[in-house]
Amino acid sequence: MAQFLRDDEPMFADILERKSNREIAEEKKRLEGELQKARM
């Protein structure tokens, strides 16, 4: 992994950003579902 980071740091940063964005979107969706349940 360290070799990959040294060889292609921009790609590694992009992978981390996409993973983070996906996790944020999943959490937002979960929270919106909980909000909808609470409103019922």
Descriptive notes:
- With 40 residues, the protein is an all-alpha fold.
- 92% of the residues lie in helices and 0% in strands.
- It contains two helices and no strands.
- The radius of gyration is 17 Å and the shape is rod-shaped.
- The mean pLDDT is 87.
Helices and strands in order, then pairings?
Layout: H1 2-7, H2 9-39
Which series of helices and strands comes N to C?
Answer: HH
Structural class: mainly alpha
> What's the end-to-end separation, in Å?
48 Å
Average the pLDDT over all residues and give the rounded result. Answer: 87
Q: So what's the overall shape?
A: rod-shaped
Major β-sheet annotation? none
Beta-strand fraction estimate: under 5%
- By DSSP (H or I, 4+ residues per run), the number of helices equals 2
The Cα radius of gyration reads 17 Å
Low-confidence stretches: none
State the helicity in percent bands. over 70%
How many E strands? Answer: 0
Question: How would you summarize this macromolecular structure in one to three sentences?
Answer:
The chain is mainly alpha-helical. It has two helices and no strands.
Characteristics of this structure?
single chain, 40 residues, mainly alpha, rod-shaped
